[in-house]
Specification:
32% of the residues lie in helices and 19% in strands. It is α/β, with parallel strands linked by helices. The protein has a four-stranded mixed β-sheet, sandwiched between helices. The chain starts with 20 loop residues before the first strand and ends in a 20-residue tail after the last helix.
């Protein structure tokens, strides 16, 4: 909550608490889960079903955003995917998104055949 302000958000859909599975697709702002999404998750907690997440970041903060989602929903997002904005815009994110979608369809907890790029795990490179 930037400057201790509560952002407004509007949602016209089913209550997440009534859903078997919720997929959170959220931007990352200033290295954290976007404030309107944090507000939405706080307003709709607790989540009774499972949670998955796709976070889109400019360059950093995607994994912190996943942690924020886990904390706010009380559920570890699975599967979870972190993408760079430039990869989404260039189309390079198509393969990871397809694997994420396949994992959701197959009800797996983690997508198969996704290798974390070295820029995500610099100590593993």
């Amino acid at each position: 909550m930037l400057l201790h302000r509560t952002p407004a958000c509007r949602y016209e859909g089913p209550l997440p608490s009534d859903c078997v599975h919720v997929v959170v697709v959220a931007p990352v702002w200033l290295g954290r889960l976007a404030a309107p999404m944090r507000k939405f998750l706080l307003d709709h907690a607790p989540f009774s079903g499972s949670v998955s997440a796709v976070c889109v970041m400019a360059s950093r903060g995607g994994f912190r955003a996943e942690d924020d989602i886990a904390f706010l929903t009380g559920k570890t997002p699975a599967p979870a995917l972190v993408l760079k904005q430039r990869d989404v815009q260039s189309g390079a994110a198509a393969e990871p998104l397809a694997a994420f979608a396949a994992a959701l369809r197959n009800r797996q907890t983690r997508p198969e055949a996704i290798v974390r790029p070295a820029w995500i795990s610099p100590r593993e490179a």
